[in-house]
Design brief:
The protein is mainly beta. It has 3 helices and 24 strands.
């Protein structure tokens, strides 16, 4: 293919049924190639090392890459691919290495091993998607060198240490997904310093401690998911600064106490999940005042008293709270006892 089309710049073989190995040999002479999209096929095997032959280096030598056996060894092989900008091979069955680009999508493959330190050489990377593989070990400190990255998805792997950062790292980061790994430390304050973040996904790990006060710095945040961790204590009052947040997912932790009044300022909430925690006391009436609310999950806590009435389009979940009363009939809670103040009748006017 590279011989027949030496000036080929854009190759898209998306959503077919191609099988076998990625045809690197036929691409090795396509030195002008800038965009490769092979996703949603049935390619198998390792991402080939000789993709690194696409451009020659300044000395006219061809890069054949590293001979290491780990699944990311082709990051060295592609270090000289100066023309290649975008590569997407997600939703195949590949089991091999990574590359130096502005956009790289290797999601939903079978990549194994640790992420190499050389990942930090992807200086111009803007979108890096590695979710849904079998990557393990620590997230390397060299990630902090990828200062231009906007989207970083590392979710659904088996990584064990949260991403480190430096004062200049990730200042352009808009979306960070680390969900469904084995991260078992406290949430670093640094993560809450990425003020450009719109989406932060940390759910499905084993984070301990509490939600940092620094969450209040995320004034552009629209989605915060810290569900299914081991976070405790109460929510920080600084959360009230996140006024554009739409989805707030806090379920499956050990947050306790009464629901914080700091939530009152989050009037853009669409999805609020406080389920499976240790909240107690009355459900605050301000929860019914969110104009855009669609989902309200309060189940399996220790709430008591009256269930606030909500708009008909709001799906409310309150099961597992045995001391509630009232609410819409389908909830099947007992009628709330009339308070003594309500029993007082006004005196008839003279």
């Amino acid at each position: 293919m590279g011989v027949a089309f030496p000036h080929l710049r854009d190759l898209r073989l998306v959503d077919n049924r191609f099988t076998g190995l990625v045809p690197a040999n036929s691409l090795s002479n396509a030195s002008m190639l800038e965009y490769i999209d092979l996703h949603n096929n049935n390619f198998t095997g390792q991402v080939p090392l000789n993709l690194g032959r696409l451009p020659r280096d300044n000395h006219g030598n061809e890069s054949v890459g590293s001979s290491r056996g780990d699944d990311f060894s082709f990051i060295d092989s592609l270090a000289n691919c100066t023309q290649l900008q975008i590569m997407t091979v997600s939703r195949n069955f590949l089991k091999g290495p990574l590359v130096n680009l502005t956009y790289l999508n290797l999601a939903s493959n079978q990549l194994t091993g640790s992420i190499p330190l050389n990942i930090g050489k992807l200086y111009k990377m803007r979108e890096l998607r590695l979710r849904g593989n079998r990557l393990s070990g620590r997230i390397p400190f060299s990630f902090g060198n990828i200062v231009m990255v906007n989207i970083l998805y590392l979710s659904s792997n088996t990584l064990i240490e949260v991403i480190p950062s430096s004062p200049i790292a990730f200042q352009n980061l808009v979306a960070l997904r680390l969900s469904n790994n084995n991260l078992n430390c406290s949430i670093p304050n640094d993560v809450m310093g990425f003020s450009s973040l719109v989406l932060l996904g940390l759910g499905g790990n084993a984070f301990t401690g509490w939600l940092p006060l620094e969450v209040g710095h995320l004034i552009n945040l629209e989605v915060l998911d810290v569900s299914d961790n081991r976070l405790s204590s109460d929510l920080p009052r600084t959360l009230s600064n996140c006024v554009v947040i739409r989805d707030l997912l806090l379920g499956g932790n050990v947050f306790e106490g009464e629901i914080s009044a700091s939530l009152q300022t989050l009037l853009g909430l669409v999805y609020l999940d406080l389920s499976r925690n240790k909240y107690f006391g009355k459900i605050p009436m301000f929860l019914r005042d969110f104009p855009f609310l669609v989902y309200l999950k309060l189940s399996f806590n220790e709430f008591e008293g009256e269930v606030p009435s909500v708009e008909a389009n709001v799906t409310i979940s309150v099961e597992g709270n045995n001391n509630l009363c009232g609410g819409v009939p389908k909830l099947r809670f007992p009628t709330c006892a009339t308070s003594s103040s309500d029993k007082k009748r006004k005196r008839p006017s003279a």
